[in-house]
Amino acid sequence: ATALYKRGLRNQTIQDVRPVARKGRNMVGPAYTLRYIPAREDLNTLAEFRNPEHPQRKGVEACPEGHVFVMDSRKDARAASAGDILITRLQVRGVEGVVTDGGFRDSMAIGELDMPAYHARPSSPTNLTLHQALDLNVPIGCGDVAVWPGDIVVGDDDSVIVIPAGIADEVATEATEMTVFEDFVIAQVRAGVPIIGLYPPTKEQTLEDFRHWRAQQNR
User: Fold this and answer.
1) Structure confidence by residue, pLDDT tens digits, 197-218
2) Stated pTM of the model
């Protein structure tokens, strides 16, 4: 998030989504998107689920392996974006994770899957109640963040961040280096070192200590 902020990108963290269940590992993959619009009752009956071209069903079968399935549910969790059967199918197909700014039905079962899943809260009503699946793999908004197909979606046990595809490599390199330095800082803080001059490293001694620590840790 800080690496993106340094590049002028201040709104890349998807708001009000959280892990259905903590996985203790990161979710990382390119975005494959689904856009919902408000349902119109005459066009969004149960018969839609028999349509092989229904965008939600089609998207579950089309999302590429290793991608993250991201759904624009207009931040409306009153009806589910999907349930455990479709999410299980995504996992079996090798999809990396799933994100909605709405809710999931059968969320307890989804939480037991190995695949990371993020939503606003559990929601039992079928998506047809309020959400009409319309477009696949188009730019969407999810939790107030613009998501383009192919953007890199990173999730952990805290949140989900969207990295524009064109800068993903440089952000990853910078974030890796920052992680090493922050591991050093945590070790120093636990040892009783004051934060001034340590973080950020405004003292030359801090940088020297970091180089020594890094060599010792083989980082």
Assistant:
1) 999 999 999 999 999 999 999 9
2) 0.94
CA pair distance 64, 30, nearest whole angstrom: 9
Give the mean model confidence (pLDDT) for residues 90-98: 98
Q: Does CATH place domain 2-163 in 3.40.50.1110?
A: no
Q: Where are the domains of the chain?
A: 2-163, 169-217
Q: Are strands 68-72 and 27-38 parallel, antiparallel or unpaired?
A: parallel
Confidence of residue 144 (pLDDT cuts 50, 70, 90): very high
CA distances from 62 to 59, 68, 78, 131, 206 (A): 5, 12, 26, 20, 50
CB atoms within 10 A of CB 131: 29
